[in-house]
Amino acid sequence: MDNWFSSHFGQRSGLIGMIHVGPLPGAPGWSGDLGAILDRAVEEAILYQQAGFHGLLLENMYDRPYMIGEKVGPETVAAMAVLGHEVRRAVQLPLGVQVLAAANQQALAVALACGATFIRVEGFAYAHVADEGWIEGCAGQLVRSRDQWKAGHIRIITDIKKKHSSHAVTSDLSLLDVAHGCEFFLADGLIVTGSATGQPADANEVRLLAGHSSLPVFVGSGLTPENLGEFAAAQGLIIGSSVKQGGYWDGALDTKQLGRLRSAWEAIKN
User: Is the predicted pLDDT of residue 2 greater than 70, yes or no?
Assistant: First the structure.
């Protein structure tokens, strides 16, 4: 297995906390106050670090309904870069970036500008239908941009058979087929999810993938203190909804739940 994960996050497996930033400029819910959004993002980053998490992932989750790819404008990119920069100043954890929806070029630009070291990508290889519309593979352009921008230190972690999507167009391809395609196209890690935010992945699929891919495997949804042990085969454990008040992604962070997740990870880390 490629051991970049261990050197990157300092552990064989690690907890990565989601920071869902408020509606940004251009989004229907934009309040006009970027400072308030920044303050909450920094506060959450500090709470994750204090709870013993190993990384963070910054995402514009509130920018619904999402634009797709190149339609995501410079106002979003600028705001995400500022947010990422301030989070990086506040904590010492590795930071990742995702820009919805499938705005993977923009995520790479944000990561390069703010000092993030990985991006979460949707639509890296193959194609699918998401709730935003048709998503095409982006690997060719994205990997070339990373090379041209001298950003080879930024890891590309890609969802496969991602949540909130129909995969009828690739129904003749197994999860391993898609994973191998992503690996062939130079992805650095693979993310398995459930059908929607907060819904658990299939633990058997995670074990299968971890046993057949040379890349680190991440779980990208539905992790809780109760089920974390089922996903011990994964290296990256991306946590969001279950550490929020009410168990829903738009709640405030719950420090008790953060502690319970950390304790559950301690039980499986070796």
Answer: no
Q: CA 185, CA 125: separation in Å to the nearest integer? A: 7
Structure token digits, residue 49? 């670090």
d(CA 172, CA 103): 27
Question: Domains (ranges, CATH) in the chain?
Answer: 11-268 (3.20.20.70)
Beta bridge partners of 239: 17
- Residue-wise pLDDT for 224-267, tens only, equals 999 999 999 999 999 999 999 999 999 999 999 999 999 999 99
